[in-house]
Structure formats: C-alpha cells, structure tokens
Design brief:
Mean pLDDT: 85
CATH topology: Amino acid/polyamine transporter I
Strand order of the largest sheet: 1-2
Oligomer: single chain
Distance between the termini: 48 Å
Length: 575
C-alpha cells in the first residue's frame, strides 16, 4: 500500500459523503435560505454577529481542529493503519459530520442557543444544569491542557537543571508569528467591520497579512521562558474571550484558516509527489501494551472522526454567526470532512516512517512526527526542509491556539448560563447572580482554575480529555435526537452513533476510574496528586453523564409529547 492510494480513496469517500449524504440530510430537515438567522434576530455585536460563509467556515474549522486530528491518528497508529483509516472515514462521515451539522441546525432553529439550552428545553432543567456543569469542567480541562501545550511550543530555549541552554529557533519563530497573527487579526477585524471592500480584496489583504506575519516570525524569533508564555497565553485568552467576535475571533480564525488549509493542501501535494510507502503494519493487535482497541482507538481519535467539543463550537459560537441557513451544511458538515482529510494525512505521515526512523531524527511528539514527515515529502519538490518544518509546526500551533480562546469563550458562556434563569427578569436579578453571570467574572473564574491545572502539566489531565470529550458527543446526539423528535423530523441515523459513543465513553471512563483507584493503593504522597485529580474528575464526569443520559433516553423513547410547531417562514430575504 502507498500514500497516494490511501489519499485517493479518502478524497473520494469524503467528497461523495458531502454531495450525497450531507445534502440528503439538509433536504430532509428543510434548510430555508429565506429564514432570518439568530445572527440577525439576536444581533448584539459581541457574540451574535452575521459573517460571510468563508469567515464562519474559517472560525468553525480552525476551532474544531486544534491539534486533535494530528495527535489522535498518530497515537492510535499503534493498532495499525487499517483500523485508524476505517474509523476516520466511517466516524468522520456518519458520526462527526452528522453531529456537527445537527448541533448547528438545532442551535440556529433555537435562537442560536447552545446544546445546554436545547437540553433544558427538550429534556429538562435538571439535565441542563448537569450538562452545563460538565461542559464547564470539560472546558477547564481543555484550556489547561492546550495552554500548556501552546506555551511549550513557544518556549524559546532549552533548560537543563535550571540553567538556560540553546535557543530553539523554530519555537521562537512560531511564537513571533502567532503574536503577529493577533495584531493583524485586530486590524483585519476593524477593516471588515468599517469598510465595504469586495470579498476578493479582503482575501488578498488577509493573505498578505498572513505572509507578513510568517516573514516577521522567521526573521525575528522571540525567546521567552515557559512560565512567561503561560502568563501571556492566559492574558490573551482572557481578552479574546470577552471582546466582540468581530474584533478578534472572526478575523483571527479567518487568517488562520488560510494557513491551515494551505498546510493541508501542501501535505496532500507532498503525498502525491513523494508517494510514500506505508511501512506501518495494517493491523497489530487488539491489545497493545495494555491498551485495548476498544475503547482506546475511538477515544484517542476524537477530532478527525467525532469530537463532542465540535458540538459546543457549532452551537456555542458558529451558530451565532451564520448569515444564511444554506451556509450551515458547508460550515459544519464540510469543515468536519476537511478535518477527517487532515487526519488521513497525519496517518500517512506516521505510516511513512520505518521502525525507529522518527526517533532517530529526534521526532518524538505527534506534532514533530507530522511536521517531519510532511517536510520530507515537500523537500522532494526542492523546498528547504528547515523552513517547511517551521511552517508546519507553526500551523499546528495555530490550530491549538485557535481552539484555546474558542474553548474559553464556550466555558465562559456555560458558566454564565449555569446561573441564568429565563423566568427572572433582568431588573429582579439579585447581586450574587449578577456577579456570577457577569462575563468578566465568569471568564476569570474559568481561567483561574485552568491556570492552576496548567501548572500541574497537561500529561496529568490528558487521559481524561478523550473520554470526557466523547461523552459530549453523546449529549449532543441525545439532545438533537429529542429535538428532532419534537419537530417530527427524520432522526433514525442518530441512534447508531448515540449507542456506539455511549458504549465507548462509559467503558473508557470506567477503565480510568478503576486504573487510578488501583494506582492510589500503592502510590506515595510524592506522585499522588495527578492520580487523585484524574480520579475525582472521572468520577464526577461519570455521575453527571449517567444522570443526563438517563433523562435524555426517557424523553427520546418515552411517550410522545405534544409536537412543537415550526415557526412560520419569514419571507424576507437574508443576504
């Protein structure tokens, strides 16, 4: 087997899935291009702000991808390339793309509200409260882990026993470029907001800004220590989580989307030029060093196949920016399939290395393995290896940084929504509730807890990320299925993903609880903190998950309630 064959099969599957399956679902549910979207109806200039399809797509894709579609397939490659490829394609089409589109559709049809609101409306207030608490805890975990990862990719020099070592040029260049992205994003946001330039002109300006940031980064690398980057990353996250989406979130994601898509295209071209041989075994074993194919494969490959976090982006931020309902399919379904394509490229990258070859080149992390492989592909076109390696590393870092502020914003919104009560008028809200629903306080408390966990190190909390992330997909499928039931719309294709992800999630979490409890019996006080943290979070997540699932299943398969009529179509054309 070679890389081109895998690539052609994957492109064909994903393209056909969009043309036939995605459009079939959209037709069954009834996409109305004349209906006013929440971006117009609830427009506030902060979270609700209509944006062109390309801008929302950039936000959606950059936010959902993160480093997941690269890390997951490379880590799961211990089981062989066939299981990974099958799950990326099957999961991406029938699980991930369906979840993302369904979550966005349900949100847009519910005033742009989150999955938490949909759970409250169609399942119950208790279920919503437990879900929001779960989401908030999950966002704290994600921010802590990804902030530590991003700060690590920015760390400007090596440190040995407290003594500064050699500068890391690639990291310094990535750090400078990422900072320039933020500055240019604000400038682009102001430009898009206050001028009416043609879309083509905006695109040219965005690409020029992107190129300028890369050139500045390569020529003026920043060399700061890890602890400094921890602080700077969190300062950035705080600001990005509270400013209007048009000022930073939309334009920054718009800029990054060009970089990320360019990286994917470059990697695909590299595969066709190099046509690497697949040296990874097709299948290794169902049990590799104590890691069982079920459920580990399906938890490890989250982004790239199905990821519950995507539902938070689809319903939490992107749905509030949808300008026209016809944009939902390409923004959600299309972005997910593109992410699956990236996961396939990551699989080809790791599979192209012979046994021990990556380690011999000093490529240890998934990001380094991916960058090293793609750089190797493109050098056959005459491109310099060092520059390509730096640019690919930059792209991966951009993925993670882009996800960070989106996760923080979702965490902030979840915390605020946890204490909101639609039955209480604004003028009657008490002082305590006013503080708890204040966006500045909600952001601060979320990031303060995440910062504390960041200092522990992402490795101590990463084990919970996969399982809790996939539990979110269970909630999304369940909430959307109940919503579609109430609307009398076709939903049978949600049941298999719902059942599979329930089995995967609760099996993985139960294994985590059992293993951590077993470790604590023999652990010493010196290494007990990380295990206690994981055990507490895993137990709490399981309890919350079981409660939400029980309530949801009762609504889904219980006696039919009165069907909620669809609102009358609004004839006004939305441009």
């Amino acid at each position: 087997m070679n890389g081109i064959t895998i690539m052609l099969i994957s492109i064909a599957v994903l393209l056909l899935a969009y043309i036939f399956y995605g459009r079939w679902i959209a037709k069954k549910w009834g996409i109305d291009p004349k209906r006013k979207t929440p971006a117009y109806e609830q427009r506030d200039g902060v979270d609700y702000e209509p944006a062109p399809r390309s801008v929302v797509f950039g936000h959606q894709f950059a936010s959902i991808a993160g480093a997941g579609p690269i890390n997951g397939p490379i880590q799961a490659a211990i089981f062989g390339w066939v299981p990974v490829l099958l799950w990326v394609l099957i999961g991406g089409v029938f699980f991930g793309a369906v979840q993302d589109f369904t979550s966005m559709y349900a949100s847009v049809r519910n005033k742009g509200r989150s999955i938490g609101y949909i759970i409250e409306k169609y399942i119950g207030k208790t279920g919503k409260k437990m879900f929001l608490l779960f989401v908030w805890l999950f966002c704290i975990l994600v921010v802590a882990a990804f902030a530590d990862i991003v700060a690590g990719t920015f760390m400007g020099y090596t440190v040995t026993e407290g003594v500064r070592g050699a500068n890391i040029t690639a990291n310094g260049a990535v750090a400078t470029t990422s900072m320039m992205f933020i500055v240019f994003a604000i400038a682009l946001g102001l430009l898009l907001k206050y001028t009416k330039l043609p879309a083509a002109v905006n695109t040219v300006i965005a690409i020029a800004m992107l190129a300028g940031a890369v050139v500045i980064g390569l020529n003026f690398p920043m060399y700061l220590p890890l602890n400094a980057w921890h602080i700077l990353v969190f300062v950035y996250i705080f600001i990005a989580s509270i400013v209007p989406v048009w000022l930073l979130l939309q334009p920054r994601d718009y800029l990054n989307s060009y970089l990320l898509v360019a990286m994917i295209l470059a990697a695909v071209v590299g595969v066709f030029v190099a046509n690497p041989t697949i040296n990874l075994p097709a299948f290794t074993s169902f049990n590799v060093d104590g890691n069982y194919l079920f459920p580990i494969l399906f938890v490890t490959i989250a982004c790239g196949a199905v990821s519950g976090f995507h539902s938070l982006v689809s319903s939490g931020t992107a749905s509030k920016q949808i300008k026209n309902e016809k944009d939902m399919l390409p923004v959600s379904f299309g972005a997910m399939l593109l992410e699956s394509m990236l996961a396939v490229v990551a699989l080809i990258a790791v599979a192209s290395f012979a046994t021990g070859e990556a380690s011999a080149q000093g490529l240890e992390t998934p990001a380094q393995i991916f960058a090293g492989a793609v750089a190797g592909f493109l050098t056959k076109m005459g491109l310099p290896n060092d520059v390509v390696f730096t640019l690919i590393t930059l792209s991966i870092s951009a993925f993670a940084l882009t996800s960070l502020d989106s996760v923080a914003r979702v965490g902030r919104l979840s915390f605020q929504e946890l204490f909101l009560d639609d039955s209480i008028k604004d003028e009657n809200i008490g002082p305590v509730r006013k503080v708890l629903t204040n966006k500045y306080f909600a952001t601060f408390i979320t990031l303060a807890l995440a910062f504390g966990l960041t200092l522990v190190g992402y490795k101590n909390i990463w084990a919970l990320f996969g399982a809790s992330n996939q539990l979110l997909s269970v909630f999304a499928f369940l909430a959307c299925a109940v919503f579609l039931k109430r609307k009398k719309k076709v939903r049978w294709f949600l049941y298999i993903p719902l059942g599979v992800m329930m089995a995967v999630t609760f099996t993985a979490l139960s294994m985590t609880i059992f293993s951590k409890a077993k470790v604590l019996v023999t652990a010493t006080s010196a290494d007990i903190f990380g295990d206690v943290l994981q055990l507490v979070f895993a137990t709490l997540i399981v309890v919350l998950g079981v409660c939400v699932v029980i309530d949801g299943v009762k609504k889904l398969f219980g006696k039919d309630e009165e069907i909620e009529a669809e609102p009358e179509k609004i004839s006004e054309k939305v441009n």
